[in-house]
């Protein structure tokens, strides 16, 4: 699906730590090499238990470095302060797999082997592809370590769910080499690099009385997929998050809100600094005209609902040079309504979900959308995973506007 942008002339240091997924790094190395990257491999002692350095040595066409001490590292041919020399070399460091142990070491600044010394002395971007048993993955220390590292600027590629070496299916399996390659290519493709992307996610709650609310079935999966895809393309992402049923992706700044009024003020505040806004939240259209201050009792309850603020329309008036993508949910007169909304709300793109289509919109892991600009329909995706849809939306956005011009 993605264009091969090539990694010609890119110097990548591939760190390999002691997990069973080390065998997948052989494929990763091959993929990086076929894209033209110059790759040097540093392995931990534990990693050598899983795959022999010779395999990486042969495929990378460079000596594999393991030891910190010893004349000039492992080969006896290079500097006695090899870790400092190696740290000056790469354009990017990728550690795949990253063990729970190495994550904790990076958080604490530990430097007791060659890889951790190189990372300590390296000033560029480090990509981590954690892989471990699902219980180790969910361990609070591991999760806190990941949050800390991602706040410090480490780029984390979340593991997927699939067969674990432990013999069952669960979360913790290292991202597939193709996904890591894609991530790396996007880091070098700076179209979203340096951009501040603001995404609204999930549903809102509108109070009827102190305990009851009006809400909707939004899960937040689409908005978080957009946030994750923008993050993977190098953007600094802020998500204004309402009611959701899934956790946010790591590396995304989260501002939690509850009502449409909260969402409106959080989005407006964050919008001042944003370059791109993607309004994927399902903001309630109606709220109680006068919510009760005490809990309602009795057999019947007649409610009067009034329209909430149309946040997208308000924001459209503050647009300036920013790029705005709206999401809409339509069941009738889709094209006509989409074009009208684009103009009225001053959006660049409108992504229309049709909840009547099987596997689309609320709660599903998949979606099917139509993407419009002011001239008409640009693209119909058909059913795809929400992450794939997110990537398509960002690709279309990038085609529509040269984002570098926003930054000038
Ligand atoms: C068979 C086996 C498989 C392992 N797989 C993993 C793994 O997938 N992820 C992980 O974090 N640790 C795993 N470990 C534990 C690490 O190898 C251990 O924590 C080691 O100290 C990591 O060292 P390193 O981070 O320096 O490479 C495994 C251990 C064994 C014996």
Describe the model:
The protein has 2 domains: 11-188, 3-Layer(aba) Sandwich (Rossmann fold), CATH 3.40.50.1950; 196-407, CoaB-like (Rossmann fold). The two termini are 30 Å apart. The chain contains 14 helices and 21 strands. Helix content is 33%, strand content 22%. The mean pLDDT is 90. It is of the alpha/beta class and 408 residues long. An 8-stranded mixed beta sheet has the order 12-11-8-13-16-17-19-20, with helices on both faces.
Q: Report how far apart the termini are.
A: 30 Å
**What is the mean predicted local confidence, pLDDT?**
90
User: What is the approximate shape?
Assistant: elongated
Number of helical stretches of at least 4 residues: 14
**The CATH class of the largest domain:** Alpha Beta
Q: In what range is the share of β-strand residues?
A: 15-25%
**Named CATH architecture of the largest domain:** 3-Layer(aba) Sandwich
Query: Which range best describes the helical content: under 10%, 10-25%, 25-40%, 40-55%, 55-70% or over 70%?
Result: 25-40%
The hetero compounds bound to this protein are: flavin mononucleotide
- CATH third-tier fold name of the largest domain: Rossmann fold
Number of domains: 2
Strand order of the largest sheet: 12-11-8-13-16-17-19-20
CATH superfamily of the largest domain: CoaB-like
């Amino acid at each position: 699906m993605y264009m091969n942008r090539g990694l010609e002339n890119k110097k990548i240091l591939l760190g390999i730590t002691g997990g069973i997924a080390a065998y997948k790094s052989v494929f990763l190395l091959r993929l990086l090499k076929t894209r033209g990257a110059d790759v040097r491999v540093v392995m931990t002692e534990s990693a050598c238990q899983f795959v022999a350095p010779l395999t990486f040595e042969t495929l990378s066409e460079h000596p594999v470095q393991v030891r910190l001490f010893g004349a000039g590292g492992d080969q006896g041919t290079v500097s006695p302060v090899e870790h400092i020399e190696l740290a000056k070399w790469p354009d990017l460091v990728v550690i795949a797999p990253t063990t729970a142990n190495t994550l904790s070491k990076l958080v604490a600044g530990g430097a007791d082997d060659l890889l951790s010394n190189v990372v300590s002395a390296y000033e560029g971007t480090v990509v981590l592809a954690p892989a471990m048993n699902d219980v180790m993955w969910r361990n609070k220390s591991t999760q806190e370590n990941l949050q800390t590292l991602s706040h410090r600027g480490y780029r984390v590629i979340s593991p997927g769910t699939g067969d674990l070496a432990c013999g069952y299916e669960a979360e913790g399996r290292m991202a597939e080499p193709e996904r890591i390659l894609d991530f790396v290519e996007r880091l070098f493709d700076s179209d979203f690099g340096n951009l501040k992307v603001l995404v609204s996610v999930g549903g809102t709650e509108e109070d009827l009385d102190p305990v009851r609310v009006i809400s909707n079935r939004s899960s937040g999966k689409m908005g978080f997929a957009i946030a994750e895809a923008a993050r993977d393309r190098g953007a600094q992402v802020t998500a204004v998050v309402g009611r959701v049923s899934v956790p946010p992706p790591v590396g995304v700044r989260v501002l939690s809100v509850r009502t449409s009024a909260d969402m409106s003020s959080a989005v407006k505040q964050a919008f001042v600094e944003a370059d791109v806004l993607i309004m994927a939240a399902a903001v309630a259209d109606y709220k109680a005209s006068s919510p009760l201050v005490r809990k309602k009792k009795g057999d019947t309850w007649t409610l009067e609902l009034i329209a909430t603020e149309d946040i997208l329309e308000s924001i459209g008036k503050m647009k300036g040079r920013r790029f705005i993508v709206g999401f809409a949910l339509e069941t009738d007169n889709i094209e006509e309504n989409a074009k009208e909304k684009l103009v009225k709300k001053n959006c660049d793109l409108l992504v229309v979900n049709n909840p009547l289509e099987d596997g689309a919109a609320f709660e599903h892991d998949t979606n099917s959308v139509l993407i419009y600009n002011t001239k008409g329909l640009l693209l119909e995706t058909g059913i795809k995973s929400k992450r794939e849809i997110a990537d398509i939306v960002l690709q279309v956005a990038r085609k529509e506007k040269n984002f570098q011009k926003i930054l000038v």
